[in-house]
Specification:
The chain is α/β, with parallel strands linked by helices and 107 residues long. The chain has 3 helices and 3 strands. The protein has a 3-stranded parallel sheet with strand order 2-1-3, with helices on both faces. β1, α1 and β2 form a beta-alpha-beta unit.
């Protein structure tokens, strides 16, 4: 049998769910960092640390998509290749973001 070994990603970008915050991914971040894989969680507009910057009812899907795409661009500049991981709404936004095929996205 053939064994395929994939290299670890250069970085991991996490996207939280609705009404969530980057804190949801702190345990996962600690795990991957202990393996030498850099990672970060973004805070979507009107969520987490950004909840006071924007009113939730004034933030549209395009604003959330733009935040994910901006974070993908920064991840590529910082790490080269990266993985995009999302939970709930963050999963949907990650799939939408991936559909734009940002540079460096491995999965």
């Amino acid at each position: 049998p053939t064994t395929v070994h994939r290299s670890a990603p250069s970085g991991i970008l996490f996207v939280h769910g609705i009404f969530g915050s980057p804190n949801e991914f702190r345990p996962a971040e600690a795990h991957f960092r202990s393996q030498g894989i850099p990672c970060r969680s973004i805070s979507l507009p009107a969520h987490g640390e950004r909840r006071l910057d924007h009113r939730f009812d004034q933030v549209g899907l395009s604003d959330l998509e733009a935040a994910v795409l901006d974070a993908c661009g920064q991840a590529h500049r910082d790490w080269g290749d990266f993985l995009l991981v999302g939970h709930s709404l963050g999963g949907i936004l990650s799939l939408v973001g991936a559909s734009y095929a940002p540079k460096g996205l491995q999965g």
